[in-house]
Write a structure and sequence with these properties.
Blueprint (H helix, E strand, L loop, with lengths): L1 E5 L6 H15 L4 E5 L2 H6 L2 E4 L5 H9 L4 H11 L4 E4 L1 H4 L4 E2 L5 E2 L6 E5 L11 E6 L1 E2 L14 E6 L1 E5 L5 E6 L3 E8 L2 E4 L7 H13 L3
Parallel strand pairs: 1-2, 1-3, 3-4, 4-14, 5-7
Antiparallel strand pairs: 5-6, 7-11, 8-10, 9-12, 12-13, 13-14
Length: 213
């Protein structure tokens, strides 16, 4: 069993790797973690993690620039149904389209669009940054044992508007509801950063590693 954290030049990679390594050690899971840009390692991984920090278009461009990575992700995640976790922009890349500055195609794994946050309260600043409370909209194995009002860490200016509400696993309130987590089948994504969310984040990572969709 091995975890591939995709390195495409965007993301809090060392922090994410350390969080996964800690979760594995504390849960005694006996798994290996690799931060990698190697398509073959992603293709062979038991669990695939796509982090992301920055602009949607830059992240998509960086991901597609890695030789063989697009095919490896399709083979491992879509065809092979391996557990997949997208974090922040890594989650947003699962959408059909991103509308940050212009229109950019996403991976189209979960139908929807990534749009600018527009809080109803004009006093709320963009980006949405810091701790906020989760509201779980439906049960999911990755949320097992996590309190419905748990606090997690966000840092984003754009959000995922799902075409199908059944794909929204959790929301948070920031001048209105915003999508905090999405999922379907073997896919799961968090707008927040589990690697920065302390005990709640470690619990979520552990649940993801134990998940057998």
């Amino acid at each position: 069993m091995n975890v591939a954290i995709v390195d495409y030049g965007s993301g809090n990679l060392r922090s994410a790797a350390k969080a996964f390594e800690r979760a594995i050690a504390e849960a005694g899971l006996g798994m290996d973690v690799a931060v990698t840009a190697d398509a073959d390692r992603v293709r062979d991984a038991s669990h695939v993690v796509l982090p992301g920090v920055g602009a949607f278009a830059d992240c998509k461009r960086g991901l597609m620039a890695l030789p063989g990575m697009a095919d490896a992700l399709t083979q491992a995640v879509i065809e092979g149904a391996r557990p997949f976790l997208g974090i922040c922009v890594g989650m947003q890349l699962m959408a059909t389209v991103g509308r940050e500055h212009a229109e950019h195609r996403g991976l189209d794994w979960i139908a929807g669009e990534v749009v600018a946050l527009k809080p109803a309260d004009a006093s709320l600043k963009i980006p949405h940054m810091g701790w906020n409370q989760l509201n779980m909209t439906q049960p999911h194995p990755v949320f097992e044992g996590i309190a419905d009002d748990a606090h997690v860490y966000f840092a984003h200016s754009y959000g995922f508007a799902c075409a199908d509400a059944r794909h929204v696993m959790a929301t948070a309130d920031y001048g209105g509801p915003l999508t905090a987590a999405v999922g379907r089948d073997n896919l799961f994504g968090t707008q927040f950063h589990p690697e920065k969310s302390q005990a709640t984040g470690l619990a979520l990572i552990t649940n993801f590693l134990r998940w057998r969709p």
